[in-house]
Specification:
The structure holds three protein chains of three kinds.
Chain A: H1 2-9, H2 12-47, H3 54-71, H4 75-79, H5 83-86, H6 88-112, H7 117-139, E1 153-158, E2 161-166, H8 167-189, H9 191-201, H10 203-208, H11 213-238, H12 245-260, H13 265-283, H14 287-290, H15 317-329
Antiparallel strand pairs in A: 1-2
Helix pairs in contact in A: 2-8, 2-9, 2-11, 2-12, 2-13, 3-6, 3-7, 3-11, 3-12, 6-7, 6-11, 8-9, 8-11, 9-11, 12-13, 12-15
Chain B: E1 4-12, E2 17-26, E3 31-35, H1 42-49, E4 54-62, E5 65-66, H2 72-78, E6 80-83, H3 95-102, H4 111-120, H5 123-126, H6 137-149, E7 155-159, H7 167-182, E8 186-190, H8 194-200, E9 203-208, E10 211-216, H9 218-223, H10 225-231
Chain C: H1 2-27, H2 29-55, H3 63-78, H4 83-87, H5 90-111, H6 121-153, H7 164-186, H8 191-211, H9 213-216, H10 232-235, H11 237-264, H12 266-276, H13 278-283, H14 288-314, H15 324-338, H16 343-379, H17 387-409
The chains are: A mainly alpha, B alpha/beta, C mainly alpha.
C-alpha cells in the first residue's frame, strides 16, 4: 500500500524517539509544573505574596501518600489502580488541612503587622525550612518508591518502534486534564469561585461588596494544598520520592507563574506546559534528528555527536532564563497578571 | 428618625485626624450631597462611614442600629452600599459577573434585579458579557453603581460618581441617580461638580477642613452668596 | 535613648562572650576556636548582606552563589600551579576559546545597539540572539577539546600559586563582577522577583562549578586549600585556628570601620534617603538605580571576601557542599536577627546564630539518641540507621522556626538600626 511506503520514507525511528523524549516527557513535566503553579498563583494573586514553601507542600503531599500506600499496600489491587493513586484524595485533603494550618499559625500573625511584601516572602522561607527539616527528619534522605508492585508500561507501536508511556504518566495526564476542567467550572460557575476571581481582581472592592474574605482565603489554600499534593505524588509515582523534590520544582513553577501572569490560573497552566516543553526541547539531542539526513549531506560537513542547547546537568538554567526573559520583556505575563 | 446619622465624627488614617467633628444626617428616600474644596474630607467621610478607616470619636447610626466601625459585610447586609471613586469594578470579570458579585450576600434568585439594572443602564445590556475593564469610563461607572444596587440598599453612597467623565455621561449619571432615588433608594453623594449636584440635592453639606461649614437644602445652598463665593466654581478655582 | 542602646549592645555581647566561654570549657579549645573562626568568616558575609539588604533594601536570596564563585576565584589564584596543564596544548585552546568569547561577545553587544542607527527593533533582537547563540556554540566547540585534554592528563587546570590574601580579594572581585551583571539585569525588579532571580542564579553557579570538571575537579573536589597562616598539620589545631581567627577578626574590624565611615558620609546619607523613600529620592534627581547597583556590587564584594575566607578555612573546595540552607538562609537569619541596618547587629547576629547552629548538632544528637533509646525501650521500635544525619535536620527546622519567631516578635532585630530623629 502506498501509505506504508510513505511512512517508511520518513525517519520513523527518530520521530518516535523525538515523541518519547520531547513530546511525552514535556507533557509530563509540564503537567506537574502546571499543577504546582496553579495553586501557587491563586494564592499569590489573592494574598499578594509568593509562598516559597509551596514546593515543600508538594513533597509533603507525596510523603503522606507514601505513608498511606505503605500502610495499605493491597488497596489498589481492588480497583485495578496503583495504591498511591487511590490514596491520593486523602493525601490531598490532609495537605490542604496542613496548608490552612500553616497560614493560620504563621502567615496571618505576620500579615497583621502590616508588613512589607518582602517580609512575607521571608516568612515563607521560614516555613519552607521548617517543612524541609521535618520531612527529612521523619523520612531520611534516601529515595523511596511509591509503587508496591511493578509499573504498567504501555507501548504504542508506530511502524516498527514503540511510543512508550507508563501507567503513572497516563494517570497524571488524565488527572491534570480533569483538574483543569474542574477548576474552570469552579471559577466560572460557582459562587465561591467567582468570589475568588473578584478578590484576585480587586480585594478592596470585594470586601466592600460584602464578600467574606476569610472564607475565600481558606478555599484558596485548600485548592493550593490539594493540587500541590497531587502534583508531588504523581511526580513521585513517575520518578521516585526524594526530599529534595521541592527545591527542583520551585524555580520552574515560579517561572511558569510569571510566564502566565501572577494570579492567572489559566496562565499558570499554559506557563507550566511552556516551561516543561522548553526544558525537554533544550536538553534534547538534536543531532539524532539530523542523522537520517547524513547520506544527503556533503562529506566535509561533519555531524557533531551531540547537539543539545543545554546539557542535562544544566537543566535548571532553562526555567531561569525563561523567568528572567519574561520579567524583562513582558513582566505582566501572557495573560496580563498583576505586576506586584 | 433619620435613616443615617453621623454625629461629630473624628477619623483619620492612623496619624493625624482628617475629620474633626463632622455630622451628616440623611433621611430615607433623600438625596444628600457633600461638597467642599479638595482635602476637606469629603471622601474620607464616606470611607469612615463604611468602616474603611477607624472612627476615633463620634457615632454612626444607620436604620436605628449603631454601626460605628462596623465591618463592611455587616453594613452591606444592613442595607448600605458603597461605590468608591477609583477601582470600582472587577476588571477581568464580565459586566454580568460584576453585578453577581454585588449580590454575593443574597441567598435568593436575583435575576430580576439584573434586569432592573439593565433598565437603569441600557448600554450594559448588550455588553453584559464583556470584561468590565474594557468598557469606557462612563459605562464602567454604570457597572460600579449597578453592582452596588444589587443589594437593594436603603442608602447608596457614591464617591465622586462623575469624576473624569465627559459632560454627556455626567448628565446621564445624574439623571440615573435621580431615577434610582425616585425608586426609593436614599443617596449620599460626594461631588466635585458642586453646582449640578446641589441642584438635585434634598440636603447639602459643605465641608471644609474636616468640619461642617454649611448645611441646608441644596437649593438654599445654591442661593447662599457665601457658599457661591467659596465653592461654586465647580472646582475650577483650585 | 542612646545610652540604653549602648547598654543593650554591650550586655548582649557580654552575654555572648559568656556563652562562648562555656563552649570552650565544654567542648575544648580546638572545637571552640573552629566555631569562632567560621563564625567570624560568616560575620564578614553578614556585613556584606547588611549592605545590600539592611542599607539598600535589596533582597539577595542567592548568597550561596556569590560565596561559591568567590571561593572558586580564591582557589584559582592561590592553589599551587599545575605544571602538567601549562605544558600541554590546553592553555592554547583555552586562549582560543577566550578570544572567541571576546569577539563574539563584542559583536553581540554591538548588534544589540544597531537599532540606534535605524535598524528596526525586531531585526535587531533577532540578530543579537543569533549572534549570542553562535558565540555560545563556537565557544562550546572550542572548549570541548580543551576540557577533554585537561581532564585526561592533569585533572584540572590548577591555580596560579599566588598568596592567599590576594586570592580572597580576587574572590571578592569575582563576586562583585557577578553582582554587576546580575544587578544590571534584575535590580529594577520588585523584591519577590529579585529573590527568585538571585535564588536561580545561585543554583546555576553551583551547577556550573559542579560540572566544569576541567575547571574545578567537580565532584572530585580540590583540597587542601592553601591557608594564609600555618596550617594545623604544622603547628597544631589550636595555634593554627587562633591565627586564622585573628586574621578574620582584623578583617571584620577593618570592614566595620570602613562601613561606618561610609555610612556617616554624605554618600551614606543619600543611600539612606533612597532606601527610606525611593520615589522622593528620585524626584530630587538622584540616580537611584545606579546607587542601588553600587550597593549591590559593594555588598557582594564583601560577601565574596568572607565566603572565600570561609571555604579556605574548611580546606576543601566542594561544589556539592554549597547548600542554600547553610550559605544563604543562615546568613539571612543572622542579619535579620541581629538587626538589619546595624553593622554591629550583623556581627552579633552572625556570632549568636552560628553558635546556636553549631551547638544544636551535639544537642540534637543527644536528644535523638535518648529519644531513640526511649522509643526502643517503651515501644520496641528500632531506630533508623541514619539517625545521626536525620538529627541534623532538626537544625533546619529550628532555623526556619527562628525566622518566623523573629519576624513576628522582633522584626527589627535584637539591635535595631538607630533611627536619628530630628524633633
Amino acid at each position: 500500500m502506498e501509505n506504508i511506503g510513505l511512512l517508511s520514507a520518513l525517519p520513523i525511528n527518530e520521530l518516535v524517539f523525538f515523541i518519547n523524549k520531547v513530546v511525552i516527557a514535556g507533557l509530563i513535566i509540564g503537567s506537574i509544573y502546571a499543577l504546582g503553579a496553579v495553586g501557587m498563583t491563586l494564592a499569590w494573586g489573592i494574598l499578594r505574596f509568593a509562598n516559597f514553601a509551596h514546593g515543600d507542600l508538594m513533597t509533603l503531599g507525596a510523603f503522606i501518600a507514601f505513608m498511606l500506600t505503605m500502610a495499605m499496600p493491597g488497596l489498589g489491587a481492588y480497583v485495578g489502580l496503583p495504591t498511591a493513586f487511590v490514596v491520593l484524595p486523602i493525601a490531598m485533603a490532609v495537605t490542604a488541612f496542613v496548608t490552612i494550618f500553616i497560614d493560620r499559625t504563621f502567615y496571618v500573625p505576620v500579615r497583621k503587622t502590616n508588613p512589607k511584601p518582602i517580609t512575607l516572602v521571608i516568612a515563607s522561607f521560614g516555613v519552607m525550612l521548617m517543612l524541609q527539616g521535618l520531612i527529612r527528619l521523619f523520612f531520611g534522605t534516601a529515595p523511596r518508591q511509591m509503587y508496591v508492585g511493578p509499573k504498567e508500561i504501555y507501548r504504542i507501536p508506530l511502524a516498527g518502534r514503540d511510543i512508550v508511556i507508563t501507567e503513572p504518566q497516563v494517570l497524571l495526564i488524565v488527572f491534570t486534564a480533569v483538574a483543569i476542567v474542574a477548576l474552570h467550572l469552579f471559577l466560572t460557575r460557582s459562587r465561591t469561585g467567582k468570589a475568588m476571581r473578584a478578590m484576585s481582581d480587586n480585594a478592596d472592592l470585594a470586601r466592600i461588596s460584602g464578600i467574606g474574605t476569610a472564607h475565600v482565603v481558606r478555599v484558596t489554600w485548600i485548592i493550593a494544598g490539594s493540587l500541590a499534593a497531587a502534583g508531588g505524588t504523581l511526580l513521585a509515582m513517575d520518578v521516585s520520592l526524594k526530599p529534595d523534590l521541592s527545591f527542583n520544582l520551585l524555580l520552574p513553577i515560579v517561572a511558569a507563574i510569571i510566564v502566565g501572569g501572577i494570579g492567572q490560573p489559566y496562565g499558570a497552566i499554559v506557563g507550566g506546559l511552556i516551561v516543561g516543553f522548553t526544558e525537554t526541547l533544550a536538553v534534547f539531542n538534536w543531532a539524532i534528528l539530523l542523522r537520517p539526513l547524513k547520506p544527503h549531506m556533503p562529506d566535509w560537513l561533519e555531524l557533531p555527536a551531540s547537539l543539545t542547547f543545554v546539557p542535562t546537568e544544566y537543566k535548571i538554567v532553562v526555567p531561569f532564563v525563561i523567568l528572567v526573559a519574561v520579567l524583562i520583556w513582558r513582566p505582566n505575563g501572557i495573560f496580563r497578571g498583576r505586576v506586584l | 428618625m433619620s435613616l443615617l446619622s453621623m454625629r461629630d465624627i473624628h477619623a483619620g488614617y492612623g496619624g493625624a485626624n482628617i475629620l474633626n467633628g463632622v455630622s451628616i444626617e440623611v433621611e430615607a428616600h433623600e438625596i444628600g450631597v457633600i461638597v467642599g474644596p479638595n482635602g476637606a474630607g469629603k471622601s474620607t467621610t464616606l470611607k469612615a462611614l463604611f468602616g474603611l478607616l477607624t472612627v476615633s470619636q463620634g457615632s454612626v447610626t444607620f436604620d436605628g442600629k449603631d454601626v460605628t466601625n462596623a465591618r463592611p459585610e455587616n453594613l452591606v447586609r444592613a442595607g448600605l452600599s458603597f461605590v468608591p471613586q477609583e477601582f470600582n469594578v472587577f476588571p477581568t470579570m464580565s459586566v454580568r459577573e460584576n453585578l453577581e458579585m454585588g449580590a454575593y450576600t443574597r441567598r435568593d434568585d436575583f435575576r430580576h434585579l439584573i434586569e432592573k439594572i439593565f433598565e437603569y443602564f441600557p448600554p450594559l445590556r448588550e455588553k453584559h458579557r464583556q470584561p468590565a475593564g474594557e468598557l469606557s469610563g462612563g459605562q464602567r461607572q454604570m457597572v460600579a453603581i449597578g453592582r452596588a444596587l444589587m443589594m437593594e440598599p436603603k442608602l447608596l453612597l457614591l464617591d465622586e460618581p462623575t469624576a473624569g467623565l465627559s459632560p454627556r455621561y455626567m448628565g446621564e449619571i445624574f439623571e440615573r441617580v435621580i431615577a434610582i432615588n425616585e425608586a426609593g433608594v436614599g443617596i449620599l453623594m460626594v461631588e466635585q461638580n458642586a453646582r449640578q449636584a446641589l441642584a438635585i440635592a434634598h440636603k447639602g453639606f459643605v465641608l471644609a477642613g474636616g468640619k461642617n461649614s454649611f448645611t441646608d437644602t441644596g437649593r438654599a445652598l445654591l442661593d447662599n452668596p457665601e457658599v457661591a463665593e467659596s465653592f461654586l466654581g465647580g472646582g475650577a478655582k483650585h | 535613648m542612646k545610652a540604653t542602646m549602648e547598654l543593650r549592645t554591650a550586655s548582649l555581647f557580654v552575654f555572648l562572650a559568656g556563652v562562648v566561654a562555656l563552649i570552650f570549657i565544654w567542648q575544648g579549645n580546638a572545637y571552640a576556636l573552629r566555631m569562632l573562626a567560621e563564625a567570624g568568616c560568616l560575620a564578614i558575609v553578614a556585613l556584606g548582606l547588611n549592605v545590600q539588604w539592611g542599607y539598600a533594601g535589596l533582597f539577595n536570596a542567592g548568597i550561596m552563589g556569590f560565596i561559591a564563585i568567590a571561593a572558586f576565584g580564591s582557589m584559582l589564584v592561590s592553589y599551587p600551579v599545575n605544571p602538567v596543564f601549562w605544558q600541554s596544548e590546553a592553555p592554547g585552546l583555552l586562549l582560543r576559546m577566550g578570544v572567541v568569547v571576546l569577539i563574539g561577545g563584542a559583536v553581540t553587544v554591538l548588534l544589540s545597539r544597531i537599532h540606534r542607527y535605524g535598524v528596526p527593533r525586531r531585526i535587531r533582537t533577532l540578530l543579537t540572539v543569533i549572534a549570542a547563540l553562535a558565540t555560545y556554540m563556537m565557544a562550546q566547540n572550542a572548549l570541548t577539546p580543551a576540557a577533554g585534554i585537561i581532564e585526561q592528563n592533569s585533572g584540572f587546570i590548577g591555580g596560579f600559586g599566588l598568596p592567599v590574601g590576594l586570592g580572597w580579594l580576587v574572590g571578592g572581585v569575582f563576586a562583585a563582577v557577578l553582582a554587576w551583571f546580575i544587578g544590571r539585569i534584575t535590580l529594577g525588579l520588585r523584591s519577590d522577583y529579585l529573590a527568585i532571580a538571585t535564588l536561580g542564579i545561585a543554583e546555576i553557579v553551583k551547577a556550573f562549578l559542579k560540572n566544569a570538571d576541567w575547571l574545578t575537579r567537580g565532584t572530585l573536589t580540590v583540597s587542601p586549600l592553601p591557608w594564609p597562616v600555618p596550617t594545623a598539620s604544622e603547628v597544631g589545631f589550636v595555634a593554627a585556628r587562633s591565627a586564622y581567627l585573628s586574621i578574620t577578626a582584623v578583617l571584620i574590624v577593618i570592614i566595620y570601620l570602613l562601613l561606618q565611615r561610609g555610612w556617616a558620609s554624605p554618600w551614606g546619607r543619600m543611600m539612606r534617603a533612597i532606601r527610606d523613600n525611593e520615589l522622593a529620592a528620585e524626584a530630587v534627581g538622584k540616580n537611584v538605580n545606579r546607587r542601588l547597583l553600587e550597593m549591590f556590587v559593594i555588598g557582594n564584594f564583601i560577601v565574596g571576601v568572607g565566603g572565600a575566607a570561609l571555604i579556605t578555612f574548611g580546606g576543601i573546595f566542594d561544589p556539592s557542599g554549597f547548600l542554600p540552607i547553610n550559605h544563604t538562609f543562615l546568613v539571612l537569619i543572622m542579619v535579620v536577627l541581629g538587626g538589619s541596618g546595624n553593622n554591629l547587629g550583623s556581627i552579633f547576629g552572625a556570632l549568636l546564630v552560628y553558635v546556636i547552629w553549631t551547638m544544636s548538632e551535639p544537642a540534637a544528637l543527644i536528644l535523638f539518641s535518648h529519644g531513640a533509646g526511649w522509643l526502643r525501650d517503651v515501644f520496641g521500635i528500632a531506630p533508623p540507621d541514619d539517625l545521626a544525619t536525620r538529627a541534623l535536620q532538626m537544625r533546619v527546622f529550628v532555623i526556619g522556626l527562628t525566622i518566623i519567631l523573629v519576624l513576628r516578635f522582633a522584626p527589627k532585630g535584637l539591635l535595631p538600626e538607630k533611627i536619628v530623629k530630628y524633633e
